[in-house]
Design goal:
This protein is 19% helix and 24% strand. It is an alpha+beta fold. The strands form four sheets. The chain has a two-stranded antiparallel ribbon. Strands 2-3 form a two-stranded antiparallel ribbon.
Length: 140
Amino acid sequence: MAKRVYANFRLCTGCELCSSACSVTNFGLNNPRRSGITIKRDLFERYEVQHICRHCEEPPCVEACISGAMIKNTENGLVEHDEAKCVGCWSCMMVCPYDAIVQIRLEAEDRMVAFKCDGCPERDTPACVEVCPTEALVYQ
């Protein structure tokens, strides 16, 4: 079974270092809105929840994708996204049970596409896990 990033919301302080690390790794800039991990807060209940792709065994986003941009890599088990094929229909976002897919603007092409955690396949440990000071994110 492939390794995945797991989140423990009880340990999350909402610092958003994970979002920043993802943004810097993928886009070279610190912008949590351009990240594959989103932190949602409930200030009344006093908790933070990390929304990140779980790379499902049977991903509904792959089934819903009308353009073939979302695919399940059978070698490493990761759900991958080809933004060149993405038509911005947001079907993947609507069916994701983890609210893990976001919209980003590709500045060079001036169009919106879906974006999600890619699991940092080029790294030994995903950037978000490396920077998490409370170990709310683990890679196993």
